Amino acid sequence: MTNKYSVTDLCEFIWALESKYKLNKLDYKDVKIWQISRMKIFYKLSIEIELYGQAHSSYLNPIKQIKAVPLFLLNSIKNNPFFTTKKFNYLLIGHNRRTKKDDFYVDIYTEKLLENNSSNFMILEQDFEFKHYEKHYANTYYLDSLLLRVGFSTKFSRIISFNEEVKKIIENIEKDITDRFNIELSIMKILQNEYINFRIQYKYYYSLMIKKKFEKLYVVIGYLRMAAISAAKDLGIETIELQHGTISKYHLGYSYPNEKFIDYFPSKLYTFGSFWNKAACYPENISDDNFEVIGFPNISEYKAINLDDTDSVLFLSQGVIGKELLDLAFNYSKLNREKKIKFKFHPSEYSRWKKYFDTSICDEIIRNIEVIDYKSNLYELICSSNHIVGVFSTALYEALHFGKNVYVANLPGVEYMDDLIDMNIIKKFKDINELNNLINSNELRTSKLTFFE
């Protein structure tokens, strides 16, 4: 479980680039092109230096892209937010993934916000792997027309030609990347594509906001909605992000050391608990007064089930480290035939996990491990397990909330959990034998920290 580079190495390298070239102020035609590309560059670099694997690959499948076009065209007519005459006070762009609750699939991050006030919101939904869920709210409209426009424009738009000053900075960045990691990565191409995407999205959201005259914009995953945030700010509309997952000093969607102002950061951040208000090096333009703790109501509906034995172990995966974690779980299962071992994939990787290994190995994995369908209820799984193993998933914090023992593998991204490791709230392990010893000791570690209020 060793990698040549760590998330810490990569983040510190990017922060050094930002200081050296003042990248968060890098401007082309009034667009901060580094800000809108920062997360894409982080993920591209993490894959190129073999820190992370490729996540969410269904969107990269050209056959699936082509097959989705007719449905997207139909939805561009039937579920287009521009075509409704209804009036709304607020615009909400939620998470594209849904969780089954009773008879509906809901966005767990926005459900409480909508609970008694849904009629005042225009809800925009992006597809999940080219599909939409059955509508829970009638005032849900799809972003398919925007995504079609972005897709075609990325492929067929003329190449953006930056001015000489910007080109020189980009060339220097590419040289620094090659010198540091011995790889070739076209930052120029990333910035060009992200600029085109941003301009198209900005025009779309600006036009919609002008037409509907919203008072507030709510988003989930703000770093993916920078164009909407920018349009709202330009129109004097309040921008609010709802927390959707782990925030840490190494999460570049939120952490901006030494940056006084980030143009496309929301004006307010609604968090699960006060713990998260200090979890990252937020830009200075969001002050303490701009955080609001709203809790995470979805988690409060479940109570931990305390088991009397130590036989139940749950591995919680994430797309970028799924293969490595499954390999660990498989090897652990071979040492512990008597234990109940479950492995829950991230929804984005469940349909493709068998591509990780040869068929014979997959068959053996299934004989030793219960591979959980992504539709299974996460909290029921956590509550019915004694020991939880992962790397940096938000679900690990949820497991702590339920009083479970948590163990994290020394895989890329474990740095996100450094504070909890240092406080001995969770345990990091370097290999299967160490994990085996930790679980067998069954030492209960309790946390006095409150992650969800």
Walk me through the topology.
Elements (H helix, E strand, L loop, with lengths): L6 H15 L5 E2 L2 E2 H16 L13 H17 L11 E4 L5 E3 L2 E3 L4 H4 L6 E5 L14 E3 L1 H13 L7 H18 L5 H26 L3 E5 L5 H9 L3 E5 L25 E4 L19 E3 L18 E5 L5 H14 L4 E5 L14 H10 L1 E3 L5 H6 L3 E4 L3 H8 L3 E5 L8 H5 L4 E3 L2 H10 L12
Parallel strand pairs: 3-6, 3-8, 6-7, 8-9, 9-10, 10-11, 12-13, 12-15, 13-14, 15-16, 16-17
Antiparallel strand pairs: 1-2, 4-5
Molecular structure report:
The chain has 453 residues and is an alpha/beta fold. The protein has 2 domains: 1-298, no CATH class; 302-441, Glycogen Phosphorylase B (Rossmann fold), CATH 3.40.50. The chain is built from 14 helices and 17 strands. It has helices at residues 7-21, 33-48, 62-78, 111-114, 144-156, 164-181, 187-212, 226-234, 322-335, 359-368, 378-383, 394-401, 418-422, 432-441, and strands spanning 27-28, 31-32, 90-93, 99-101, 104-106, 121-125, 140-142, 216-220, 238-242, 268-271, 291-293, 312-316, 340-344, 370-372, 387-390, 405-409, 427-429. Strands 7-6-3-8-9-10-11 form a 7-stranded parallel β-sheet. A 6-stranded parallel β-sheet has the order 14-13-12-15-16-17, with helices on both faces. It has a two-stranded antiparallel sheet with strand order 1-2. α3 crosses α5. The longest helix is centred in the middle third of the chain and has 26 residues, at 187-212. The model has no long low-confidence stretch (mean pLDDT 90).
